[in-house]
Amino acid sequence: xxxxxxxxxxxxxxxxxxxxAPDACTDPGAERVFSRPVRGVRPGARRFGRLxxxxxxxxxxxxxxxxxPMPAGRKVRAAADGxxxxxxxxxxxxKDGFPGRGYGRLIKIRHGCGVSTRYAHLRKFLVxxxxxxxxxxxxxxxxxxxxxxxxHLHIEVLVEGRPLDPAVAYGASVGTVAWIHHHRKKEPLLLxxxxxxxxxxxxxGRRLHPLTKRYADHQGQDYSARPGxxxRAAADGxxxxxxxxxxxxxxxxPGRGYGRLVKLRHAHGVSTRYAHLQRFRVRRGQRVRQGQxxxxxxxxxxxxxxxxxxxxRVEGRAVDPLEALGRPLSVIxxxxxxxxxxxxxxxxxxVELAQxxxxxxxxxxxxxxxxLALAAPVPESSGRVGVASPHDLAQASGGRP
Length: 401
Description:
By secondary structure, the chain is an alpha+beta fold. It is about 15% helix and about 35% strand. It is built from seven helices and 22 strands. The chain has helices at about 15, 165-170, 175-185, 320-325, 330-345, 345-355, 390-395, and strands at about 50-55, 60, 65-70, 75, 80-90, 100-110, 115-125, 130-135, 140, 150-160, 160-165, 205-210, 215-220, 220-225, 230, 235-245, 255-265, 270-280, 285-290, 295, 305-315, 315-320. The strands form four sheets. Strands 3, 4, 5, 6, 7, 8, 9, 10 and 11 form a nine-stranded antiparallel beta sheet that branches. Strands 14, 15, 16, 17, 18, 19, 20, 21 and 22 form a nine-stranded antiparallel beta sheet that branches. A hairpin with a 2-residue loop joins strand 21 and strand 22. The longest helix is centred in the last third of the chain and has 15 residues, at about 330-345. Residues about 1-20 and about 350-400 have low confidence and may be disordered.
């Protein structure tokens, strides 16, 4: 049975960061807590790590921040306390019928511990360089400047110049965000199995099966690609399965199951599956490195067209691959363990999860896919069971709720 993966599992490291970890930040202001830069606006489709098409370069690139579509003129707020060190036009503005380029009107704020934030495509600045701003203070109005396709806010969180998922930062302290960054540098991340190929519409969750015409759980993510496209290992691991699962099409009869299937076992109980392959490039018992070619896209088994079916599992239980990609293996494994603990904690934890975030798994069943700090333990003094809220994280970090 599939388990929705928790987007913000990286905040599970908040407890370690606030309890004297060797590389925890001790700068003044490390306890400052992050919040969302806009109110009453849901994130758009462009999220951190997702492949988006760059129309100028005509290629797919990994998105570095978070998009918030909204009408021009909405208030943009500082995500955390800090000092403004950049309020200028980055790139160019639209002029004489020519489109703009780059970030457009851009604000950069430095928060300490090497952490900074960027707010792009603004209409108007309400602060200037050198100003000290408080969390929640209005710093600009949203707009459509620079290389923007519609009025929206683009926010980035960077640690020592490297981008970090903004969703991970919300509710965590500046020191915690810096600690997560240093942890990430020490451990490889789970990478997409295809290069420059965007995920298809058939994603993780319940859907109508194209062959059986019945609703069933789709436990992975499909990538449509040309036959023969190289498939790469998402992480270092051991090949423990490389053969036909189900049957291949023959004598006019369609195939069944996964077709040619490769299974890799990685660290921390994480495994990955690559299905419907045209042919194998590895054999059972072989060790592979991240990025190594393990097979080629095909149309074998119960498939309606050439594509790769990619699964991520933790101790045999499926999680959403798009939520797992770009995360350290240890965090993926830890998050799934915490999901199981919450599920076994009874109705109180489930009610709290539902109140914490209305965005649930497909067709409304089970645990929310995007619950802040699910894997962080609730302080005993709170008297509650289950998961940590942003308020709990702030208390654990010594900051404000």
